[in-house]
Amino acid sequence: xxxxxxxxxxxxxxxxxxxxxxxxxxxxxxxxxxxxxxxxxxxxxxxxxxxxxxxxxxxxxxxxxxxxxxxxxxxxxxxxxxxxxxxxxxxxxxxxxxxxxxxxxxxxxxxxxxxxxxxxxxxxxxxxxxxxxxxxxxxxxxxxxxxxxxxxxxxxxxxxxxxxxxxxxxxxxxxxxxxxxxxxxxxxxxxxxxxxxxxxxxxxxxxxxxxxxxxxxxxxxxxxxxxxxxxxxxxxxxxxxxxxxxxxxxxxxxxxxxxxxxxxxxxxxxxxxxxxxxxxxxxxxxxxxxxxxxxxxxxxxxxxxxxxxxxxxxxxxxxxxxxxxxxxxxxxxxxxxxxxxxxxxxxxxxxxxxxxxxxxxxxxxxxxxxxxxxxxxxxxxxx
Length: 383
Prior knowledge:
Elements: H1 2-34, H2 38-66, H3 68-88, H4 92-120, H5 126-134, H6 136-150, H7 155-176, H8 197-227, H9 233-247, H10 253-260, H11 262-279, H12 285-313, H13 318-346, H14 349-362
């Protein structure tokens, strides 16, 4: 299993944590260097989310046409190019375009790796493999922290180092993933049709809500700490590392879902995401670092849960289910990042985080049902 999982973790770390989420880590320094307003920062964050969302739209089609391996490698290549572009950016527009390119890989890689896992691992290892690969985001966040400490005043060199890591990860995946194992056997009946939307509507709604609620944290949490809570640069980076390290625990999502079911796992995750947003508004270090732990665990847990939820809807073509759930997540994040920037600019950081917490909490009422869309022979599962 680990022969497949370990390079998957590295590629998720590159495409998500390094290419997308590290922007929030470097945002205070980038804003100073390029004279960005909070609104412009929100637009750059949204550019990466929009790229992620658009990539998800094409993911299952590309995987079906070219197989999963080339799409995994394409994901690594766009992350590499985008991060080099961010390192070289000298104005808002160049940064936004580079962030868009860097964000593409995160949209392609999760569906592609879900197909790799389905066709490489035994049935009883698939949930475990998928959720552990998903923790790559957390491992990547842990990596970005020390890099930010080393290059706190030289964020451009930080992105150059991230690009070098992306190149090595590309080579590793190219060596490990065997193309002959990644051919899809999907039929037209296995693909998502709009007439089937009723069966997946709750998953789509839930993923959109969690994407919206989490977007403000990834983009503005560190800026909040330095601007409002008077955290030093080093303290805010340690906060980021704690968030990433805690997220590794989210790799237990597959085991917890098997133990208590999808429904209880989802509602527990929503509560912890909400708690992380509220705790960040409390002006005490203990509450702030507790917030980092809560968010790290819950975000990775929830994205792992959406992978499992999507594969249960599309058991024979998991890339379709993962693309759909992550597409909804990306829509929520795209809208949320832009809205967060406006709210912070017009109101305050505290108001914006509490408003996002309230919105996230409302999605706890979503139903959880995993009806396989590809066949009428499956029973409806409410777990």
